[in-house]
Amino acid sequence: MSSDAARLTALINRWREDGMVGVRSCDIIPDATNRERTGLSLEHVHFLATTFAKEGFRKRINNEGHDIPVLVRENLTTGHGKVSFEKWKQITADTEGFPPTRISDATPEFFCSLGNGHFSQALNLFRNDSRSIFTGELYSVGKDDNLRQALDEGVSSIVLGCTMPLHDRKFVSEMLNRTHDDVTWSVADDGNVHITTLTGDRKTPQWEALSKVCDAEQLSCLIRSKLGVDYSSVENGYYLIKSKL
User: Fold this and answer.
1) Three-class SS of residue 245?
2) Spatial separation of the C-alpha atoms in residues 227 and 229, rounded to whole Å
3) Are 225 and 219 in contact (CB under 8 A)?
4) Does residue 202 surpass a pLDDT of 60?
5) For every residue of the chain, which 3-state class applies, written as one string?
6) Which contiguous run of DSSP H or E holds residue 118?
7) Tens-place pLDDT, residues 17-45
8) Is 189's pLDDT higher than 90?
9) Most C-beta atoms within 10 A of its C-beta, which of 47, 49, 71, 222?
10) Are 97 and 198 a contacting pair, CB within 8 Å?
11) CB atoms inside a 10 Å sphere around CB 104
């Protein structure tokens, strides 16, 4: 195991709560350290939601499926919890297309995502009956039982304590993306994490590998390129132009 993977494993197991925790996406906001503090890409959130709508939601079974959310249990009495909340509240107010946050000044507890933040907000687009920025269509759960279960019951997540230092949070956030193509995860029933370095070549698509290491703006540009969208030429919204969706 590489030294970075070993440190990542050690930090998660040091700060995690016992067992896996089912967490609903409406209780999750991005941690302020996420993606070099640039936050989330609006385009990637909608790209994931569009994938769920077209291909169906694939829940994680036996270490296969979507990535495991890695979250920090937070509240507004901690400095970093308040910073993360205020930052996300401002972003959702200023940027049309993000799902509105249901967390408020009266919320006693919430979760900040170090990993899989786009995934959680993509789920929130369905929860809030939001419209696609690409097509203008409503995101609807329809008959997707796996998606309904994820919204109603939450997604099994690794939850870390709020006393975890910021420099450790930042390292975990960076490594969850950087090592995506180099390691494999397994999580025991008690929540103990095992991260193993892989050998040999993997066949992850180039754009997907790049998406893991981009900051928010770079990731938005990557998604626009994949969809054949020149956002700078569009004044009235994505849905007026033809994309590859």
Assistant:
1) coil
2) 5
3) no
4) no
5) CCHHHHHHHHHHHHHECCCCEEECHHHEEECCCHHHHCCCCHHHHHHHHHHHHHHCCCCCECCECCCCCEEEEECCCCHHHHHHHHHHHHHHHHCECECCCCCCCCCCCEEEEEECHHHHHHHHHHHCCCECCCCCCECCCCCCHHHHHHHHHCEEEEEECCCCCHHHHHHHHHHHHHCCCCEEEEECCCCCEEEEECCCCCCCCHHHHHHCCCCHHHHHHHHHHHHCCCHHHCCCCHHHCCCCC
6) helix 117-127
7) 988 899 999 999 999 887 554 468 888 89
8) no
9) 71
10) no
11) 10
Task: Using CA atoms of 95, 97, 101, 105 in order, give the dihedral in degrees to the nearest 10.
Answer: 20
- Say if residues 134 and 46 touch (Cβ distance below 8 Å): yes
Query: Tokens 């990993």 appear where?
Result: 115
The whole-model pTM stands at: 0.82
Contact (Cβ atoms closer than 8 angstroms) between residue 188 and residue 68: no
Q: For strand 193-197 and strand 183-187, is the pairing parallel, antiparallel, or unpaired? A: antiparallel
C-alpha to C-alpha distance for 76 and 83, rounded to whole angstroms? 8
Residue with structure tokens 């998660």?
12
With beta carbons less than 8 A apart as the criterion, state whether 166 and 77 touch.
no
How far, CA to CA in Å, does 81 sit from each of 39, 103, 170? 15, 12, 14
Sign for the CA dihedral angle at 179, 208, 64, 203 comes to: negative
